[in-house]
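Appendix B. Raw example, untouched.
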Amino acid sequence: MQENYHKWYTQYLSRDFEMLVFGHSGFPIILFPTSCSRYYDTKDHGLIESAAEFIDSGKIKIYCPDEIDGQSWYNYSISPADRVKTHMAYERIILHDVIEFAKYETESKTVGVAGASFGGYHALNIAFKYPDKVSLLISMSGSFDIKPHIYGYYDDNCYFNNPVDYMPNLKDDWFLDRIKKMKIIMGAGDEDFVLEENKYMSSILSQKEIPHTLDIRSNVSHEWLFWRQMFPEYLSNIL
């Protein structure tokens, strides 16, 4: 499997940023790390290897950017307002550095996004906010409500980065039409602590008549073992 390491200075955080890329060609998928982990953790935990068939055959190319959750949502030493602003700087890196680079390399008009746990939040939030850039969404055990990280604080920045709040109120046809064309799979286990969040998000999408799949698995919890099973199955179903 072809693997490339990238490191560059990003203006959005005024520091270096790192990423691993797997594959030689194919549809680009941005794979977000789990909460407070690093760009190499999806490889170290076997999630990349689980998709080796699709990568080696040139069907997909996976981009694994770093994350800064420990400096944003999970940074309880700064104010909630600054937490969300730091997240928004990270979002700009993903939009302008990562996604645009992936589109350029693969000559694709759109990308896919995927992630497990809090990586599922990043994937879903980016997808629903920028449906002109994203055409495929895979969330495994995603956690979609950022209110536990802001301790009662709330402003417009929080609202527009909390999909459980902005999606029920979404009425703009431009967004809805594009999201309805997106391929969406959300997975969770019946023993997963984020199960109810996934059911709730599914109900929101159903109310908006947004086609999607909610996969609830028996005897499954919040573990890498199950994400390694889900990821290749979802890729097979969605590509």
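End of appendix B.
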